[in-house]
Design a protein that fits this description.
Structural class: mainly alpha
Radius of gyration: 15 Å
Largest sheet: none
Shape: flat
Helix content: 40-55%
Order of helices and strands: HHHHH
Number of helices: 5
Oligomer: single chain
Length: about 160
């Protein structure tokens, strides 16, 4: 797909790319960075650890992290700003849809580390996993509508 042109409204496809980019940026933060662990994730999503607790290793502080997920090159300052922008969208537009925010972020995380999207939500939807796609798409639509109403455009 093509990237949205700068100056255009944020459509769901563009927002999804930003969600995955935000997760990739998070993976590039050095371990010492205060934004590295789940404590810096949006407050509504601090239970992210639950998403991967079963299979993945836990760090000493209880945050699961597979070293293979870490990227070698650190993110540019601009990328970190863009990541925080995405987190702010979640807090502003998805506070009434916490499940949507959770599913959206877990699926974007899976995409960022090269896993199937449903891997990200495997601990939530063991039976009806296609439900996850519907929830993700509804969350993207909610974000798109909110950003459009606030005249936020693709950058």
């Amino acid at each position: 797909g093509h990237h949205g042109e700068a100056g255009c409204p944020m459509n769901p496809d563009e927002i999804w790319r930003r969600e995955v980019e935000a997760q990739d940026t998070l993976l590039r933060l050095p371990e010492s960075h205060p934004g590295r662990l789940k404590c810096s994730w949006p407050s509504i999503l601090r239970d992210f650890a639950d998403a991967v607790h079963a299979e993945e290793t836990r760090l000493a502080d209880g945050c699961p992290w597979d070293p293979s997920w870490t990227r070698k090159s650190p993110p540019a300052a601009r990328a970190i700003d863009r990541m925080h922008e995405v987190w702010a969208w979640h807090e502003k537009y998805l506070m009434t849809n916490l499940q949507g925010a959770q599913v959206l972020q877990r699926m974007a995380f899976a995409e960022a580390i090269g896993k199937p999207l449903l891997w990200g939500v495997r601990t939530i939807f063991r039976k009806s996993r296609w439900t996850a796609y519907r929830i993700r798409d509804k969350a993207l639509d909610t974000l798109s509508a909110g950003l459009s109403a606030d005249n936020v455009i693709a950058a």
